[in-house]
From TrEMBL, chains A, B:
Protein name: FAD-binding oxidoreductase
Annotated GO MF terms: FAD binding; oxidoreductase activity
Protein family according to the UniProt entry: Belongs to the FAD-binding oxidoreductase/transferase type 4 family.
Cofactor: FAD
Gene source species: Halioglobus japonicus
Any single GO BP term: respiratory electron transport chain
UniProt keyword terms in alphabetical order: FAD, Flavoprotein, Oxidoreductase
């Protein structure tokens, strides 16, 4: 019996895709390319995943785990002969504890359905991002996804109470903890969060829910200097009393691009400020929330920290503001050929970095143009560099200047294949050695998502 | 040259203690026993720690890392011939970023001094516990310490942005990240948090600070049922808008013991409620905070969820309430011979558990008496079982009933030596196998805190 037949015995004939059903799936981020894998196996239960991995381990078959394919770093890319293990038939929302605020789901559960289940129980699931309609919990765990509310709720890691993981050899590590505090031995689930499918396959998770927020306040602010932006962040963190849920900065080049060149978005504020900030707070009581938000922003306007402001007067207006911030697709389309980056570094170094990066680009790639924005409350900025002849030359400038300042080449997207060769820009030799030690200890045959994150 | 002399060459003659200077230090929790180690080496720098470990690795010398000795599970216990590595001369608060709210410290820095440095910069360090005057950051990291504000701010893990760790062979893994978001490769620091000194020696940490809280509200509540306690928790989590910072439950047997038998604490409420809750919220604006707190509690009293309440009218009164909750020392002294436990389990199982545990004790140890209290918002309860003939018999009841419900034998104190033989009550076989795999990969000679957490 060949491998395909053996897999069919485990998951049924419908569970294994081959030929055009494989070729029609992508091989790269943004849906690009054609998947060259030998097959896509689609288990329905943890036990099936376990049997698949035991089989692949015995045969040294390379396995590439797939979630919702919303990643951006080629973490799902296959070579010919690879087997894709897709979680698309493991989407169950299994159990909710409405008193404690926990939710147990299969790894293939889609983010949107998890958010809906949380809302139905009177809670919220606090990770949110543009790919919510496709992104799966397993992939979000495996990439330690971030999103727009990290400044308040943390990344995916902070939403995971328990995990069930199938190891490279098919053993099932079940650690479906439900409580905030559990110091009984090493917290093994931490190993798998953010390991991008290279150490194990997440099959199930217990998620921590947060109290639902019934009152949102949103404002778009014009700022005269980066120092004012930093002071604003500091002030809102304390004076909004922990309720600051988003702090998104747009450099002037980004705002202008969105409202002048794309012209699909409204001009909320004049285009002559050097920085703009989209801020949001989340509370329970609409009246109280509005009073606090407007009084805190009012004081900052009076003292000159904020130069100009629009406070959203309706949910619709808030959505328009967010639509501008989140319209990365239009930006990327308009700037092609382009390269997009997702970096992080301390607040104190950001101005220095952006200036050095812009100078470096002007010198090496005078035709290129750059747009800068990001989740500043998390130290995370995104760069889109457009009109470029050569991806590599841009990477050398962007990552080179970052290396000088000790920044991270990946704030939230992960490493995958795309950034792998730059990993040493952000991690020391010994840390990378230790990553290899770990990879070897957990996947000695190197069959799990081979070549991703670290080279073999 | 013998080992002592070699160590003296690294840290200077003053850096190595022997003889009575070792014997005068404890060997167990609560300051009990006499340390039988061959010596205590006290490095001042990471480089010295690195050289010490390289030497010990070469000679297969067992090393027991020491922080402030406030642990409660015999994680610092030595055998004759062991070398203690104490961080007591590495107490520097190295660097604060007042805008970003981060603090870099050496691992020997004492919690109180870290809290003070944070306060001086206009922030707070959010982990707090009774041992703040001695507990060191390195030990708090190594044990993933909890404390009284976990329900709001999380455990130590959530306060650690970056770590520097000396590995078993002396290599220095420096990963002093300062930003909230960094997905450049596996997050190796997670391995060391909560590993109780068995995988590496924390030498330095970058800590996340939180906005200072200028307005605290504290109340002590009498409750008619456990269901009311659960409803109260749920309601406060949403209606205090994320500002609920403590939710400490005292079963009637605890409150009565404190106010009737010890009689050193004030009787704040009548003694006839089955449960009492100490709640605290932390905000920025005293007037607003008081208004919110009293209105939310007032509504709950009106609808009968809260049976009786005292709201602290001053900082002093709040301190008296906390003094009662935190006076574990008196409790333990009064109940000797006793055994203390620190367990966690889901809210839904708590009543079942406590009843089964009490029945089990009544049957097996009719003379014993038990006092129950805990951080209920975290699923964490503490038990003190007094007047016992036999530690092991108590453990079998307490842990046995817990195992039936899938609870954790250690919510926050860790495993150390004390709970090691019960680890399998809370962790599956494969998870424990994986812990061993990790231990072997990182400390192949087994020289780091040998025998703690998992047996060799």
């Amino acid at each position: 019996m060949n491998l395909i037949e053996q897999l069919q015995q485990i998951v049924g004939a419908n569970g294994v895709l081959t030929g055009d059903d494989v070729r029609s799936r992508p091989n790269h981020s943004w849906g690009r390319g054609e998947c060259p894998a030998m097959a896509i196996v689609r288990p329905r239960t943890t036990e099936e995943v376990s049997r698949i991995m035991a089989l692949c381990h015995a045969q040294e078959q390379r396995v590439v785990p797939w979630g919702g394919l919303t990643g951006l770093v080629d973490g799902i890319t296959c070579e010919a002969g690879d087997l894709v293990l897709s979680m698309e038939r493991m989407q169950n929302i299994e159990h909710c504890e409405p008193d404690a605020g926990t939710l147990r789901v299969q790894a293939g559960a889609v983010l949107q359905s998890v958010q809906d289940a949380a809302a139905e129980a009177g809670w919220q699931f606090a990770v949110d991002l543009g790919g919510r309609g496709s992104a799966q919990i397993g992939g979000l765990v495996a990439t330690n996804a971030g999103g727009n509310a990290v400044v308040r709720y943390g990344m995916m890691r902070e939403q995971v109470l328990g995990l069930e993981v199938v190891l490279a050899d098919g053993r099932v590590m079940s650690s479906l903890n439900e409580v905030l505090k559990n110091n009984a031995g090493y917290d093994m689930k931490q190993l798998f969060i953010g390991s991008e499918g290279t150490l194990g396959i997440v099959t199930r998770a217990v998620l921590r829910l947060r109290p639902a927020a019934n009152a949102r306040q949103t404002a778009f602010l014009g700022m005269n200097s980066f120092d004012d932006v930093a002071a604003l962040l500091r002030h809102l963190q304390s004076h909004l009393e922990g309720k600051l849920s988003s702090f998104e900065v747009m450099w002037a080049n980004h705002y202008r691009f969105m409202v002048e060149e794309l012209a699909t978005h409204q001009t909320f504020l004049p285009v002559d400020y050097p920085y703009y900030v989209l801020v949001e707070s989340e509370g329970q009581f609409p009246d109280r929330e509005e009073a606090l938000f407007t009084s805190v922003l009012g004081e900052l306007m009076e003292e000159g920290t904020i130069a100009d402001a629009v406070i959203a007067q309706s949910g619709q207006q808030a959505e328009q503001l967010w639509a501008m911030r989140d319209d990365v697709a239009s930006l990327i389309e308009a700037m092609a050929p382009m390269a997009a980056f997702d970096i992080s570094l301390p607040l104190r170094d950001m101005q220095t970095y952006v200036a050095a990066m812009e100078q470096g680009l002007a010198k090496r790639l005078p035709e290129a143009r750059v747009v800068v924005f990001g989740h500043l409350g998390d130290g995370n900025i995104h760069l889109v560099v457009g009109n470029i002849p050569d991806h590599k030359a841009v990477e050398e400038v962007v990552y080179g200047e970052l290396r000088n300042l000790g920044g991270s080449i990946s704030a939230e997207h992960g490493i995958g294949l795309e950034k792998r060769d730059y990993l040493a820009y952000s991690k020391g030799e010994i840390e990378i050695d230790l990553m290899r030690t770990l990879k070897h200890a957990l996947d000695p045959k190197g069959i799990l998502n081979p070549g991703k994150v670290i080279s073999a």
